[in-house]
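lol ok so funny story. i was supposed to be doing the assay writeup but got distracted and ended up predicting the structure for this chain instead. priorities right. anyway since i did it might as well share w the group, maybe its usefull for someone
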Amino acid sequence: MTARQRRRLARGLQYAVLVAVVALLAAAADWEQIAASFFQLDIAADMFPAVWTSFWNTIVYTVLAFAFGMVVGVPIALMRVSAFGPYRWFATAYVEVFRGLPALLVLFLVGFGVPQAFPGIQYPGGVYGQVAIGLGLTSSAYIAESVRAGIQAVPRGQVEAARSLGMSHTRTMVTVVLPQALRIVVPPLTNELVMLTKDSSLVFVLGVTTATMELSKFARNELTDTANATPLLVGGLLYLLLTIPLGLLARRLENREDRR
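and the output, tada:
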């Protein structure tokens, strides 16, 4: 048997095992119970149009947190590669702390810890501001590391060429290095956007209202009211409506970057 024939046989066996596993699971499943628990069309229909408010809030929370993460993360990345020691130490500590803390804990600290430590403090936008800061702090640490990697991926020769033309270090970084670094890290930044979309489900810890709740909270409330899992399925499908296009965009950007 040739090597090609062995590969074809191994591939065929893998397909056969996969088909057998799927067939066994399909035969063992209680499809009537699954339909009754997850596919009640009348319950799904009753979720609309109210669910669109939560869907929109999920988008708004994601965009605000990502914007905050970019505004904070890019300067932190620049500090991480700075020749000035205290900048590097601060940026390193910032990244390690906010990458190490769970996003849920950061949200809780922003929503309840800071107001207790500083009585009378008011976040702009209320819950929206709390979410932007809470999720944005965690996001900014990951964005900072992505941007730092992008900066270090820019060929050193371009920096030397810019300096030889009389550009200062700051101007070289802002006009030559950073634009290229941001282009390099667009795919991981898109993945971070996907992660933020899912992390928006943690907003419930802040105590949201009907007007400010996001998809997962809305789905859980509907689950409690209907005693049926159909709302969870609808909520999951709406999350996929957001995350799958972002995932496809990230892969497309990665492929385009690989071809350069």
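The chain has one domain: 40-259. The chain has a mean pLDDT of 87.
back to the writeup now i swear
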